[in-house]
Amino acid sequence: VLEPRHTTIGQCPVHKRWIEGCAKYGRKVWHRVSPKPRVCAGTVLGGVAPVEKFLASFTAEMTRTDFCNDQGVLNVMVHTGALGESPTLWSHEDGPVLSLNTAKEKDDATRARTAPVLHFGHSSAWASRYLGRAGGELKAAWRREKAGEDVVVVETTPAPVSATSDPVAGGSATSDPV
After folding, report:
1. pLDDT, tens digit, for every residue of 44-70?
2. I want to staple 65 with a disulfide (CB 3.0 to 4.6 A). Which of 9, 24, 97, 177 is the partner?
3. In the beta sheet, which residues pair with residue 98?
4. Residue 96, Ramachandran bin (φ over 0: left; ψ between -120 and 50: alpha; else beta)
5. What angle do helix axes 48-64 and 70-80 make, rounded to 10 degrees?
6. Is 97 helix (H, G, I), strand (E, B) or coil?
7. What is the C-alpha separation between 85 and 73, in angstroms, rounded?
8. Paired sense of beta strands 97-99 and 117-119, if any
9. Of 74, 72, 42, whose CA–CA distance to 57 is shortest?
10. Contacts with 174 (C-beta within 8 Å, 6 or more apart), sequence order
11. Phi, psi of 19 (to 5 degrees)
12. Where are the domains of the chain?
């Protein structure tokens, strides 16, 4: 799923640090992918066989890069053809997943009430406030509207993140094991 189109890879200092700062990629790869849209590593969807194929390729590339940032690696793979077949990329603005990590309130607050899937990693202040205020209400309304359908609501609480895994400091965006 693409992140909001208001910022390309090249306009995002965090993506620059993740990609250019990866010893296996560096400035050359950074320049190649910088005009492209950002792809969210937290929203990979698909059938079992395609996802297994993706995970095998992704895991091999993560290993080859000595575990550079996962989202940086995914963006390089998507935009350089390293995944083989071109994956389907849904837009943030009208696709099935609304990723709120770098979304802007003025653009996405209304759609957040009706998006089929909300993805959120606690990096947006307005989205944190919005989901804290309206999350329970949205979940209850959704379950009422979808009564009788196969519906899954997944809620997670992020594990504590150490200073070395701070994505802003250039570490992994994942939490350390507890």
Report:
1. 888 999 999 999 999 999 999 999 999
2. 24
3. 118
4. alpha
5. 110
6. strand
7. 17
8. parallel
9. 74
10. 70, 165
11. -90, -55
12. 9-90
